[in-house]
Amino acid sequence: MKHLPRLLKIISVAAKYRLDKLAPASGRSRLLGMVLGTLGLPWTGNAVRKLPPAERLRAALEELGPIYIKFGQLLSTRRDFLPHDISEALQSLQDKVPGFSKPGIHEIIEANLGIDWQQYFQHVDTSPLASASIAQVHAATLTSGEEVVIKVLRPNIEQTIRQDIHLLKWVATIIERYIPNGKRLRPREVIADYEHVILGELNLTSEGANASLLRRNFDNSLLLYVPKVYWDISRETMLVSERIQGIPVSDIDTLRAHNVDLKRLAEIGVEIFFTQVFDHSFFHADMHPGNIFVDPENPTSPRYIAIDCAIIGSLSNDDQQYLARNLLAIFKRDYRKVAELHVECGWVPPDTRVVEFEAAMRTVCEPIFERPLRDISFGYLLVQLFRTAGRFNMEVQPSLVLLQKTLLNVEGLGRQLYPDLDLWQTALPFLERWNKRRMQPSYLWKELKTHVPDWIEQFPHLPQLVLDSMQHQQNLQSIHQRMQEQLAMQQQAIERQQASTKRWRVAALLSITAAVAIWYFILN
């Protein structure tokens, strides 16, 4: 009952925008349609009803507030089952949320540091530099004169998020249970992904740690710059980092005014993405235009600046290797190899028929490859492959979902900068070099040296491990033998019971036959 007011608000917004009509006609609930249709009568003539369905969903999430805006943004990453128009509409959600003024920023700083704010800062702007659904950012100057930004969480935001997630989980259960084809949308799985990501954003120490590692990975790099974190004055709910000066990557006119080579800038973005994924196995997974800036100091080879490292993706060594081999096989249109790799790495069940999977992949890819490579969306192709694999019960891989979303962002951003960007031309040589490098003796020797200390450490224990293994094997054999004996005894008991039952049935039949015969002779 404590969630009733919020639930009524959601129902009211759903009725206003007739969200039930987003479902295909064959999958709509007539009862839900009647309820929302009745409740939505006051808005019958409203202009919002004339919007396309995807735009109505976007407008509804905006009206429900910042938590639902963030949910819509994260939902847009699940292009493996969302229609394209809905994904695009949700991707365009802007998290422009009014800032908060109470408690004040000075009060927040002092609560986190336990001392007067002026001990560390010359000046702190009381008006936020930027404000979003989870946190807001204030510009400040340290006593040393360094320009910084202070990111602080919204007051009581965790409680609000947990309440809304609890409600969303209940709604997801209702959708799966009562809405036709509701299970196909996997709403509970989507909410679980959302919960994991958004609760992770509440720990600003984690975001700072991500930024520090990303900064080290590109230390002295001419490709990407990541602002440093001031750990001595950062806390779990307050992050202080270097203030950067750059041009927003979406501001094409200003980039042109600085004579920035947009073609080179787009290619560098792709190179940064593949470097993060395959060289570092640690990639910025929220690379939308609001988080990316450009340093125009060297316009012929500009450098990116990345902020907001709350959402980070990482691949295991196995996933990294299989992904690269899959992409190379796709480039070569070797669909049998793609199917075999999916089975081999466990992305689909081991009993998957490789021939059928290969045919499904060919059906998806061949029409796409008939177009010029520069007109093919690499990210969209990946979405289609994951969607096809989903038909063969491919388990959702959160890291691959983040990778897919990031690739779509990178590709979209690159083509916004340079419409003729051929991502394939940039990606293929990188993957080939990466694969070739892994086969070189120097790489193999490096990997060997990495594991040798562990092997040496385990070596003295090897005889005991062998003995333990042998004892374990003997125990298993003993258990197996006892189980076989018990099964044999049970089988004998069952056979004796069956024999006894059979004898009783024969005796009963003979008794009945004798009784009938005696009765017959008496009557005659």
Strands, helices and their partners?
Blueprint: H1 4-16, H2 30-39, H3 53-64, H4 66-75, H5 84-91, H6 105-113, E1 121-124, E2 130-131, E3 135-142, E4 147-153, H7 157-178, H8 187-200, H9 204-217, E5 224-225, E6 238-242, E7 247-248, H10 252-257, H11 262-280, E8 283-284, E9 292-295, E10 303-306, E11 312-313, H12 317-331, H13 335-344, H14 354-369, H15 378-390, H16 398-417, H17 423-438, H18 441-458, H19 462-523
Parallel strand pairs: 5-10
Antiparallel strand pairs: 1-3, 2-3, 3-4, 4-6, 7-9, 8-11, 9-10
Helix pairs in contact: 1-2, 3-4, 3-5, 7-8, 11-16, 11-17, 12-13, 12-17, 13-14, 14-15, 15-16
Task: Give a brief rundown of this model.
The chain is α+β, with helices and mostly antiparallel strands. The protein has helices spanning 4-16, 30-39, 53-64, 66-75, 84-91, 105-113, 157-178, 187-200, 204-217, 252-257, 262-280, 317-331, 335-344, 354-369, 378-390, 398-417, 423-438, 441-458, 462-523, and strands spanning 121-124, 130-131, 135-142, 147-153, 224-225, 238-242, 247-248, 283-284, 292-295, 303-306, 312-313. Helices cover 59% and strands 8% of the residues.
* Number of continuous helical runs: 19
**Rg over alpha carbons:** 32 Å
Binned strand content:
5-15%
Largest sheet: 5 strands, antiparallel
| Fraction in helix | 55-70%
Structural class: alpha+beta
Give helix and strand order, one letter per element, not per position: HHHHHHEEEEHHHEEEHHEEEEHHHHHHHH
Q: Enumerate the spans where pLDDT stays under 50 for 5 or more consecutive residues.
A: none
Number of strands: 11
Mean pLDDT: 79
Shape: globular
Our measurement of the CA-to-CA distance between the termini, rounded to an integer number of angstroms, reads 82 Å
